[in-house]
Amino acid sequence: MRNVIIQCLFYGSLTFGIWTALLSIYFHRNHVSKQQKKIQKPSPIWSLEKKLQQEINHGPKPIPRPPVRVERPTKEEIKEQRPFLKLGKDFNFSDPEVFHGFSKYGFNTIISKILGNERDVPDTRNKMCLQKYYPTSLPTASIVICFHNEEFNALFRTVSSIMNLTPHHLLEEIILVDDMSEFDDLKEKLDYHLEFFRGKIKLIRNKKQEGLIRARLIGASRASGDVLVFLDSHCEVNKVWLEPLLYAIAKDPKMAVCPLIDVIDYMTLEYQPSPVVRGAFNWHLQFKWDNVFSYEMDGPEGPTRPIRSPAMAGGIFAINRHYFNEIGQYDKGMNLWGGENLELSLRIWMCGGQLFILPCSRVGHIDKQRVAKQPEVTKAMIYNSLRMVHVWLDEYKEQVFLRRPGLKSVAYGNITERVELRKRLGCKSFQWYLDNIFPELETSKGS
After folding, report:
1. Residues 215 and 179 sit within 8 Å (Cβ to Cβ)
2. Which of 88, 155, 193, 290 has the most neighbouring CB atoms within 10 Å?
3. Which residues is 272 bridged to in the sheet?
4. Which candidate, 145, 108, 118, 185, places its Cα nearest to that of 367?
């Protein structure tokens, strides 16, 4: 009897072990099958192609905005490429691909391609900014971005960052103005990718190259938002970037405001925080960044306090749309780009407005490098600057001619309309501007 019991226990244990092994194999194979299905999930690009094909076959259907990442490398790919990303300024410029991208666009297009169309950037705001709260009901924004032969990934990162980091109820539209670009990837390929953002994008294609100033005016004329926000085509906005700008303008419609501009390194494309600075210029009419007085950061707001700025860089700023029209928009007589930022800065201050930099709004900007300015750009910058000098500097234009006497005989076109605009707006003198806004300029005799 005892032997029978032992045999029963032995065979029972053996049966139990076999079933346990079979069940383990079954569950393992089931788990592997699920993982393979996940891996075989179609890519965002394939999904978009499928949706577009459905649209062709079955009529238009709305394509939802992503959170999908278009042409974004996987974590594994980024890990593999990280040593390459750290090469930075040690790149060999004799490498044809590096040299070609740099000479064509002014920055490292190899890394731009690796980064793709979207990435996360560090939150560079002061910690005190995180304690600020803004009303949910704010003016709406029309964001105007002009581009001419921009590198595709840089342009698309600009658009993606806006879409991902801007409350959609505040974003009236993004107006892209293609100023007669020649590159193929800014045509059908761009149209194709912008399908992700349908409903928020207006794409205008100029039939001739107008230059940045007139292209912006074309974009602004199509805007319907309360506030115009001008951005360059190689930017990446940061967290809670728009709300401070809109809130300041809501409180004072005659205030133009700029974010603090962080630097995106032209070789590494690393996003780097900028210190709190203000915009300024010298008697050569060259824009520069200037240190902020310590007393301007005193008080309870500390380094988050809005900074009064004598001038703006011009590429990135926000202004009430009706106020922009009221004070004369841009000088339509100016060519291409250059000088328009200082002219608008003087006009805002001298004609009853204000210009501030808001440290709690951060936007990254690729610091493009050009080997040499094209002759037509240099010519336009001189032409535009002279228009500003003869309309706004009064007797102080002699300070400019003392440093650059050759400019005294250079033509600058008809400025009658701008002189009349100054009279109509009842603008103050340039002496008032020096006394009240930028006294440091008058004392900088050597600059």
Report:
1. yes
2. 155
3. 263
4. 108
